[in-house]
Amino acid sequence: MAEFRAKETPFGAATVFRVVAEIDVTQLVGRLPRRERWVLLLVDGKRTLTELAHLTHRSELDVGSTLARLLQWGYIEPIHENLFQ
Question: What is the pTM of this model?
């Protein structure tokens, strides 16, 4: 597990994430717990945290926590805040 990075900027419900280019998702998903795996497979560079919560039938707080872990581990990165939501 990667060290906690205290310098990460907070993200909101309209933030869009993508998988880091160097990550081989097919190799990674087998090693992740189910909750993280499900969210990672839905991260596509277009969906916001709100949309991911809707698709997974989980709260925004729950999905946000999962995204924060994936971000901390270096598997995903924020692209931008979707201002047109």
Answer: 0.81
